[in-house]
Amino acid sequence: AIALSIVVLVSLLAGPLSGLDPNETAVSQRLNGPSAAHLLGTDHLGRDTFSRLLVGARVSLTIALVATLAGLLVGATLGLVAAWRRGAPEGAMMPLVDVLLSFPDMLLAIAVALIGSSVLQVAGVVDLSKSIYPGPNFTWLSYVVGGFLFGVGMTLGSGCGSKTLIRIGGGNLK
């Protein structure tokens, strides 16, 4: 809670803390290292990295707050309806909740990120074609080698992390 409070306070005071405009370019100062003038150095356009980090934290925290409040609103509303009416509304919502709870957290996070980024691109908020990730950076060989190495790691580790925790909890340290 203390760390979150510090992050929120620092992001709210982004302007006075950095003292620099995060969008001001100075091509003559591009890719400079940390200095007294630029605490975290400059990027490829000469913009101050520290001030951009602080402004980015403000945007990220705003998005996180809105997403949390939206989830709270939807969840509380559905929970109140299910508890108040019982029967059909509760019976209709339980299979949906069971489906959500059956997904591993990481898979659900990936699905939400993919759907969310697609919605933002369709809405014109972001342009994913300028991202480094969707481009043809990986060939089929890298997938094959990555899958092989993952399999070797799983074999050497005697299975996934959950299986290992179950074995350790049972007293088997092998």
How would you classify the helix and strand content by structural class? mainly alpha
Taking pLDDT < 50 over at least 5 consecutive residues as the criterion, the unreliable ranges are none
How large, in whole angstroms, is the Cα Rg? 23 Å
Residue-averaged pLDDT, rounded? 80
Largest sheet: none
Order of helices and strands: HHHHHHH
Total of helices: 7
Question: What helical percentage do the residues reach?
Answer: 55-70%
Strand content: under 5%
How is this structure best described in words?
With 174 residues, the protein is an all-alpha fold. Helix content is 64%, strand content 0%. Helix 1 crosses helix 3. It is extended and about 65 Å long. The mean pLDDT is 80.
Can you lay out the helices and strands and say which pair or pack?
Elements: H1 2-12, H2 14-18, H3 49-85, H4 88-102, H5 105-122, H6 140-156, H7 161-169
Pick out its properties:
174 residues, mainly alpha, 7 helices
Q: Would you kindly provide a brief summary of this structure?
A:
The protein has 174 residues and is mostly helical.
